Amino acid sequence: MNKTLIVYYSLFKNTENLALEIAVQTEGDLRELIPEKNYSFDYNTAAKEVRNQISRGFCPKLISANDSIAAYDTIFIGSPNWFKTIAPPVLSFLRSHDFKGKKIIPFCTHGGGGFCQIENDIAKECSKATLLPGIAVNGGAMPEEVTNWLKSLGYK
């Protein structure tokens, strides 16, 4: 049986809303990545914090989503596009699990930048997994957009 997990980090709810839609349509389990120290809710302050963490390759400690992924065959991994890459909490998740033999499907939300390096960065961290084509959504996803994407993967 193909068991599905949807893992995501979201600061301003766009990525969370996309993750929720994917979970509804795949009937997969949902896990939110929550860092020990939250980012500022002020966009400019959060941007400075994130830019600094990304430049250092920082992986924040997570207080959620640390459970084993062994039972899952397919893992959707979602992040906002932050400075052309994944959010640091997603990097923490990727570096704390073994993805050998898993199907990894990235998804992201963005303000106009698309995936940029997100798919490549996930592929680097999950080199022993099979990476399937992801979806990059500007703002929030429409249910039919997710449906069409999942159909293109042969998922539905």
UniProtKB/TrEMBL annotation:
Occurrences of domain Flavodoxin-like (ranges): 3-151
Matching Pfam families: Flavodoxin_4
Superkingdom to which the source organism belongs: Bacteria
PANTHER family: EXPORTED PROTEIN-RELATED (PTHR39201), FLAVODOXIN-LIKE DOMAIN-CONTAINING PROTEIN (PTHR39201:SF1)
Protein name: Flavodoxin
